[in-house]
Each structure stands twice: as structure tokens, then as C-alpha cells.
Amino acid sequence: MQGQVEQMLYRAVDIDESLLDHSVSTQHYLVFRQAAVKRGLRTDAKITADIDPQRVWEIEAKNREDQAVASLVKEYFDVSSENWEETFGAFWDSSWKTGS
Predict the structure, then answer these.
(1) Model confidence at 47: pLDDT above 70
(2) Domain that holds residue 33
(3) What is the pLDDT of residue 100?
(4) What are phi and psi of 38, to 5 degrees?
(5) Taking Cα atoms as reference points, which of 22, 38, 41, 15 lies closest to residue 88?
(6) Residue partners of 93: CB distance under 8 A and separation at least 6
(7) Whole-angstrom Cα distance, residue 66 to residue 17?
């Protein structure tokens, strides 16, 4: 399960937030995307509803080579750290309030 989430985090960093519909099934990815934007890793979304699947895989592969993204992924899985709450906590709490 962690592998699937990790794979999607490398995509979520560049996904259009409107595709992450504030549901339980996409909550991890929405929170990660919001934290990446706040940290200044991304601004515009490269993955949109009409993107070719091959392009999604290319974006994911490039993101796996990005050390800042890889560091944020590692931080995301370190839930017991003080940094987790600071980086992701407010987004996580807010995602529950919006219908997740």
C-alpha cells in the first residue's frame, strides 16, 4: 500500500487540485500537493484531466529525479516527526473539514 501511495505522490506534486475532489480516496494526494505548493516546489499543475497517460508517466519519472520532491515524499511518510505536523498537518485537518 505504501508503494502505491508513494507512486501517486510523485504524480500529485504536479496534479491539478480540481482532480483531487476532497474525498477520502484522494486526501493524501491533495494534502501533498498543497504542501508542495506552499513549499514553493510547484505552482502550475502539469497533470490535468485531458493529459495523455504517457505524459503522466514522464512527469512522474522526472519528479522521482527531483531531490526536493523526493525529500518531501520521505517527509510525508515520517508521520511521527515534528516536521510532519508543520508541513502537512493544517492541510490534513482542512481536508477533513471540506468533506473528505
Answers:
(1) yes
(2) 2-97
(3) 45
(4) -60, -40
(5) 38
(6) none
(7) 21
Cβ-based burial of 41 (10 A; exposed 0-12, middle 13-18, buried ≥19): middle
Quickly tell me which residue has 473528505 as its cell: 100
Q: pTM, whole model, 2 decimals?
A: 0.88
**What residue type is assigned to position 24 of the chain?**
V
Could you give the number of structural domains in the chain? 1
How would residue 3 be classed by pLDDT, with cut points 50, 70 and 90?
A: confident
Cβ–Cβ < 8 Å for 69, 63: yes
Which triple of cell numbers denotes residue 44? Answer: 502550475
Inter-CA distances, 78 with 53, 63, 72, Å: 30, 19, 10
